[in-house]
Amino acid sequence: MMPNHARYIDNPYVVEGETNPTCKFPAKDDLDALVARIGRRVDYTRPDVYVGASGVALLQLHLGDHARALVVAENALRTGRRLRSGCSFLCDHVGLLSVAAVAIHRERPDDTRLPDLIHRIEAAVEYVLRKDTGDELLYGRAGYLYAIQFLRKDFARDPLGSKLPVVAKQTFDAILASGRRSALARGPPLYWRWRGKTYLGAAHGFAGILTVLLQEHRVFGTVITPEDLQAIKATVDWLARLQTNDANLPSTLESGHADLVQFCHGAPGLVLLLTEAMGTFEDMQKDWLRMAEKAGLCVWRKGLLVKGVSGLCHGIAGNAYTFGALHRATGDTRWLSCRDAFATLAVKLLSQSRLDNPDHPYSLFEGIGGLAWLLSDVLKGGEAGFPAFSDVAER
Ligand SMILES: [Zn+2]
């Protein structure tokens, strides 16, 4: 039954105050069918990770099909028009170059194209360090820092990767400096705006930027001063306390209300941040875990989105990663059941073609690529980080 609110359908597994669904597990056949559909419809007119061909190559890498990933990445390099001069992993040319570099490195580590690819990615730090570059994930510095994290997992022991920690540190410092410059007299010590607004969620705002910064420190051991660490801690806590009565997070500070529950805006980004931040600030664990679990319940109730069944950015598949993060933080297997329930419902809703009508239906961030990634993680068991965002520790 469709309720009168427009953004989500009621979760059929919800029992008030509980998260304890029992449902059919997604099957390998469901995953195989999605992957076959995606493989037939790679969009080479869009070479980016977010909705384009390099997102498909990245999915193939995740599935362990490195040969297929290489074919798609090479085609994308060859035929894809040049993307805007930016620096982020998800939406700019840096993402295409990074995915191609890893695909080539895994299949042909001695390939002579690799030094040029790595050099071009490193050279994009010039754009990162420009004063007018933003700090957010989708187009800004945090998106570049993620690209360098992604590469370091594969190039850590390769001489070609030796300068990557240097550009990562430059980017890390630039984000912190920008945050301090924009801080207001009354407010958190770090403050970032994008296109004139104070975005709070993962795609354009505080949650995305802070998660990538903390991941840099925790996973790669990037040195951070006690003052900067304290500033990050106070800013995370400030953000967490903006939670609304129903445990959602407003899209912007200016909007004053919160009606979106999706990776890009709202509670999912807060859960991903708080569960990451607990790993660095153990003294905040109790408070932040309570807030993260409340936000997780908000996603459980309001995260079955009408407009995007299968995508990562504003779809059910992306929202499901909230529960994996909570399982990692708590060890409570009920959260994994929630994730599996969302995966199952997304498969079912997609098969009924009731709800899904994205602009890029076969893509990673807006289409069935996201659901394929989720099903592969569900079938592997355990929990995995959010694709192309909070997943560098386990790759
Ligand atoms: Zn979105």
TrEMBL record:
<dbReference type="InterPro" id="IPR012341">
    <property type="entry name" value="6hp_glycosidase-like_sf"/>
</dbReference>
<dbReference type="InterPro" id="IPR007822">
    <property type="entry name" value="LANC-like"/>
</dbReference>
<feature type="binding site">
    <location>
        <position position="313"/>
    </location>
    <ligand>
        <name>Zn(2+)</name>
    </ligand>
</feature>
<dbReference type="GO" id="GO:0005886">
    <property type="term" value="C:plasma membrane"/>
</dbReference>
<dbReference type="Pfam" id="PF05147">
    <property type="entry name" value="LANC_like"/>
</dbReference>
<keyword id="KW-0479">Metal-binding</keyword>
<keyword id="KW-0862">Zinc</keyword>
<protein>
    <recommendedName>
        <fullName>LanC-like protein 2</fullName>
    </recommendedName>
</protein>
<dbReference type="GO" id="GO:0031179">
    <property type="term" value="P:peptide modification"/>
</dbReference>
<feature type="binding site">
    <location>
        <position position="314"/>
    </location>
    <ligand>
        <name>Zn(2+)</name>
    </ligand>
</feature>
<dbReference type="GO" id="GO:0005975">
    <property type="term" value="P:carbohydrate metabolic process"/>
</dbReference>
<dbReference type="GO" id="GO:0046872">
    <property type="term" value="F:metal ion binding"/>
</dbReference>
<feature type="binding site">
    <location>
        <position position="264"/>
    </location>
    <ligand>
        <name>Zn(2+)</name>
    </ligand>
</feature>
